[in-house]
Amino acid sequence: FVNWWKRKNQDDKTTRSLKQPSDIRSEDIADGIEGLIGNTPLMRIKSLSDATGCEILGKAEFLNPGGSPKDRAALYMINEAENKKLIQPNIGCTIFEGTSGSTGISIAMIAKAKGYNAWIIMPDDQAKEKYQLLEKLGATVEKVKPASIVDKNQFVNLAKRRAEDFGKNKEKNKKKLIDGDDNYERENSIENNEATGFFTDQFENLANYLAHYQGTGPEIYRQTNGKIDALVTGAGTGGTIAGISRFLKPLIPSLKVILVDPPGSGLYNKVKHNVMYSPYEAEGTRTRHQVDTIVEGVGINRMTENFNMSTGMIDDAIRVTDEEAIAMARYLAKEEGLFIGSSSAINCVGCVRVARKLGPGHRIVTILCDSGQRHLTKFWNDEYLKQNNIYPKEEEGLNFIK
Ligand code: PMP
């Protein structure tokens, strides 16, 4: 009888937990791919938490459908352009962006979902799988030589120009090029259902920041009940760090925000000494120094509108080497099957440094931006690393972090 009773009880529980069709609520079903963006889980990174005595929490942004937090920024920028009537679906409008990859992938995905074309311009030294993914998503991919932001063919500048030169607005755009950019919105707006070209401009477009101010930040607040001691993350456009910290800081005044920066980026010096100065004195995006190219998606040498929104919000900065990032990614894969990309890896190194400084018992939140799957041919490729004179070492525990 006891066994029968136990089984019955179990069956009842199982039946109760299964949803009957009439119980399925519309919020349980995502409306297309856009419906899967955001609301990512926060995970306790067990090995780092156990090793440091702090609770180290990673926002699993790699679970967005396009595989990174850039889905949020791309969706906000495209929605805003639609609301301003700068683009309209299914009439051949084309979205242009200059990107190191993640934003392009997000734009290509959302463009398909909504009825737009995507034209993505990228430096030619990024991991191969990013170009392949973009092509599979039907985007036009244009590769350019890495160049300084003052170069007219630098990937961001070229994306802007391509958008201006696009399609039926040629006549107007000619005029605009002569007159300057003042009337960008009016001159690019849709008239007579003409296809337009739109430059999303992730570095300067504050819809990027807003996606994190209205999405990622509130989600982290809810998921932690506002109990966080430090936020530790890197910046590419700055949208993520600015949006989250601007939302959280007024609600949690004791929160420390710490920027993690790769070698060759000027943001570390901007935070520490209020000067935008790169160790390699480069202009534009990170100097293409040998080992600098290994960590992708973060680090920049100019002030962007999105990073500027973090003014007064960032308390400190940490530099992380490529070697440390590589060792961290391998450590997490080995210790707990967490397979991350390069920008997530520098974030995790930053978390350990901050945990050591704060001491046990604190809660630290970071962003797990993308998966290692997007970095198989570079960051996760021992052959490639060898060619760049990097030989990942097996060290005891987290001893590779000095
Ligand atoms: N990680 C990856 C993989 C990225 O592509 C980017 C954006 N380029 C970032 C982090 C940085 O995010 P943000 O642009 O919001 O500063």
Automatic annotation (TrEMBL):
One of its GO terms (molecular function) is cysteine synthase activity. Its main location: mitochondrion. It catalyses: O-acetyl-L-serine + hydrogen sulfide = L-cysteine + acetate. The keyword Metal-binding does not apply. Keywords: Membrane, Mitochondrion, Mitochondrion outer membrane, Pyridoxal phosphate, Transferase, Transmembrane, Transmembrane helix. Belongs to the cysteine synthase/cystathionine beta-synthase family. This is cysteine synthase. It comes from Rhizophagus irregularis. The lineage of its organism: Eukaryota, Fungi, Fungi incertae sedis, Mucoromycota, Glomeromycotina.
